[in-house]
Specification:
This protein is α/β, with parallel strands linked by helices. The protein has helices at residues 12-23, 35-41, 79-101, 139-151, 153-156, 175-184, 203-215, 233-244, 254-269, 278-283, 292-300, and strands at residues 3-7, 27-31, 47-49, 63-66, 109-115, 160-166, 168-170, 197-198, 200-202, 221-225, 231-232. It is 41% helix and 15% strand. Strand 1 (3-7), helix 1 (12-23) and strand 2 form a beta-alpha-beta unit. Helix 3 runs parallel beside helix 4 and helix 8 runs parallel beside helix 11.
């Protein structure tokens, strides 16, 4: 039985990943600051540790999935919150690297979190963005770039390293949950001009893609964790409204977004690039939900 260490295991993606790993007969260890919450949220066979020092010296850890990081879309980006964004990502990653550098046994593969924010600003551009595309500098890019740089130390430890550049993950408990209330009340619609791209991925494909990266020895470096068919904010809004049988034409003006959410609104709600998962697609990974309408219908079939 292979053993995997996960940070961020009690988060939205982490919870689904742990369930899949347990089902696939992995021994799962989750590093968490809140063991009580972890015990409620995760399968009982998951081992919860509050500190890396609790891991025995003789324990063989085959893989690491590093998903820890304070959520970005919970409100305005104050100076204090920006500092927590960095410390919760870079700080945790550096602790992991230091821990394994001091051990004789090192993980064979490390999947370290990042996000499509790595590519920076964009609004309605027609050129697809893959793992080799250049980035536009802004705060999101700087944060993701620093996060990836902190994880690069794992390569020196001999690990196959994957930078998981995640898009908008759709599923119960994720971003979709926050979008539903206004749409159900027929108050939903595009944000700004609606031309910004929304690279998305169904939670089932997200978990499957992580499992694929764990097992595929030829996958390394940046990996875009997005569906192969990103949509504009307008198309997403129309499709979500149609699935819910609600109109979706009430636009939130860009100025209102900037006033309410500041820089967070500008970078996460009003901007978006056409990110595609070229690396995993070319290597043979098959998406269960490559198109937005079937994905939303699957997720919302019992939630209308």
């Amino acid at each position: 039985m292979a053993t995997i260490l996960i940070t961020g295991g009690t988060g939205f993606i982490g919870r689904h990943l742990c369930q899949r790993l347990i089902a696939d007969n992995w021994q799962v260890i989750v590093l968490t600051r809140n063991s009580k919450a972890g015990a409620r949220q995760l399968p009982g066979t998951v081992r919860l540790v509050g500190n890396l020092d609790q891991l025995e010296a003789e324990l063989i850890i085959d893989a690491v999935v590093n998903l820890a990081g304070e959520p970005l879309a919970e409100g305005r980006w104050t100076a204090a919150r920006k500092e927590r964004f960095y410390s919760s990502r870079i700080g945790t990653t550096e602790q992991l690297c230091s821990f394994f550098a001091a051990r004789t046994q090192r993980p064979k593969v490390v999947i370290s979190g990042s996000a499509i924010g790595f590519y920076g600003a964009g609004n309605g551009g027609i050129s697809p963005v893959d793992e080799c595309s250049p980035a536009v500098d802004n705060f999101s890019h700087q944060l993701c770039s620093s996060w990836e740089q902190s994880a690069s130390a794992f390569e020196a430890l001999g690990a196959r390293l994957v930078y998981l550049r995640t898009g908008i993950v759709l599923g119960h408990g994720g971003a979709l949950e926050k979008m539903l209330p206004p749409f159900k009340l027929a108050l939903g619609g595009p944000i700004g001009d609606g031309q910004q791209w929304m690279p998305w991925i169904h939670i089932k494909d997200m978990v499957a893609l992580i499992m694929y990266c764990l097992s595929s020895e030829d996958i390394a470096g940046a990996v875009n964790a997005t569906a192969p068919n990103p949509v504009s904010n307008t198309d997403f809004s129309k499709t979500l409204g149609a699935v819910l049988h609600r109109p979706a034409f009430l636009t939130m003006p860009a100025l209102v977004v900037k006033i309410l959410f500041g820089q967070m609104g500008e970078e996460l709600l009003l901007q978006g690039q056409q990110v595609i998962p070229r690396k995993v697609r070319d290597s043979g990974f098959n998406f269960q939900y490559p198109l937005i309408e079937p994905a939303l219908r699957d997720l919302l079939s019992n939630k209308k």
